[in-house]
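Hi everyone, sorry if this is the wrong subforum. Our group has a chain we'd like a structural model of before ordering constructs, and none of us has done structure prediction before. Sequence below.
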Amino acid sequence: MTGRTRRRATTAVAVALLMTGALPGTASAADENRPPPRPAAADLRTNGLACAPNAAPPYIRSRPVVSAVLRDPDSTARLSGQFEAWWKDSAGKEQRRSFETDVLPGQSHEFQWQLPDDVPPHTPVAWRVRTSDGALWSPWSATSTGAACRFVYDNDVPEPPVITSSDFPQDDAWHDGVGIRTSFRAASPAEDVVSYAYRFSTGAHGSLPARGPGLPVVIPHLAERSGVDTVSVQAVDRAGNHSPSAQYVFRVRSAREPVARWTLGDPVGSPVATATAGPSARAGSGVAFGAAGPSGTRLTTAAVLDGSANGFLTPGATVVKPGTGFAVSAWVRPDRLDRGMTAVSQDSGTAALFSLGLRTAGDSAGWAFTVGGTRVVGGSPAAGKWTHLTGVHDPVAKTARLFVDGREAGVAQQVKPFTTAGDLQLGRERGLLGHQAAWRGGLGDVQLHDRLAFAPEIAENARRKPVSTGNWNMAAALPDGTTPDLAGGQPLALHGGAKIDQADPLNFDGGGYLVLDGTDGHASTVRPAVDTSDSFTVAARVRLAGAADGGPMTVLAQGGTHTDAFKVRYVPESSQWQLVLTEADRPGAREWVAVQRDQRDSVNHVAVVHDRAAGTFQLYLNGSTADGATVSVPSSWQSGTGLHVGRAHAGDGWGEYLKGDVDDVRAFSGALSPSDVSMLSFGFGEPCFCG
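Answer:
Right subforum, don't worry. Here is the predicted structure as tokens:
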């Protein structure tokens, strides 16, 4: 480097040092150590509670622990803190305590101090903190006006509350409570109670704010079942201390019976419907008694309303009071779905206080429950089919709930009922121009309750006991080529290579069984064994013998001219049992398939259960169902041909012939429960129909 070059380089360095202020013998601003910043109130906590210097001090119930996030962006080597707390003792003398933390590296850390045991209870305590970088201290966290974080230590539990109830006096008697609003009162003499925590033995629980020293809170309760119950209540003070639990035992008797009920099973020609509760109902000339009621219920007969202006019944009295909780239910069978029809309602001026029935929108129809101006719609009505409807209005929760065949189908919120009430009506409802929406079809067992009803009770009222519609145990073949129904119904006729054999029984009681050759052997009834558009169960015991072509083999099927409404078959290629459903009786109709894997038993029990209310079909294998064995369908069609054993529709004709043995073919109207299917599969005699 030349001399000129060295002089230029030296000059450049000097200029750079002048610009940065870092000439030899001087310190730059960047190297100057500054005090850490004042700790922010947002970074301070007392037992996890935020510091609020200008607010009332929080009360804490455990030994105080104060914490602070301390920061120093200028340092990464040394960071520590100093806490200080002070209070006045019983003599009025100020007491101060301090604590210095360990030193930690970094620019930010949370530090804690558990205050000493001599911190007195029920005394305001103030504290502050500051940050050190090892050389300089930050300002104290307390503001320039002197405000600091504060707290009051309180570990004294309040006195337990006293519980009373006018709805359930402690007289060891049973009192009404199911479906009606009841209450309890609780109050503690402690002056610092801020809330009451309660819990019922049935599971309901909650918390209510205190109203003031010694003032009781009202604990609401709505019992859903009868029995002995207990409510436990604790008083909670401002520090979060819970009092000992106070308990109150009470007895809820069975739900009240309906305030009005008409079974409508009156004699033919009766001018009135006799009430089992409430007043009798006058019948218009468009009402006829003596029709068949819904099968599987105690309602052997019911009324039929003709849909005219005279097709109604009325007790001429008010049953439901405005603004009160109530439940209304009825068995209904609409003869048509093309217009709105009302099964039960109650007048309210020129409108209906409530109505329960059928409503249409375009080409669709749905069940409906209306309260005031709010309507909830759900379910899929079917003409000519019995359905159980229940509507429940809760004025406190402001809800209206609709149940169809025992299952909740919809709920409406923020319901505002009308405030006037007139006469109850069966088969019509009040409108601006008079009564309208006349019911056409069957009607039975109308019930009104002056209380709420809940799912278990509603499901039980809607329950239909399955009825056997076929029982073929293949004991023998009669001379006319049939095997009889043990219940005395229609026989199964044997066709093609089908025969009854006695050699190696499939069932648990011995006897014969149906042998099918896989070519043209099958058996069938003349009429449908079940109504496939309604709830039903069909089952059989089967032993497979293989098939020459290895294709599907159908055990049970029932359908129409072109397709099967359902069929249960075995598919050797995939080792699957399948339940196949079709959308309609037409070629190429859409199909749904439920599947169970082959359990490779020598004898298998298969069953299909259709629950119309739930909209499901389930395939059972040896008493059990499985994932993939349930199909939900919007509706099912009514087959017009008999039950087929051993074959199904295939293309334009018949096929899927079964090669094997079949026994214990059973058919029921109604959906068997899982326990009933299990009993049937294991040969424990008749199902108990006990749900």
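For your construct planning: The chain has three helices and 52 strands. The first helix runs from residue 3 to 20.
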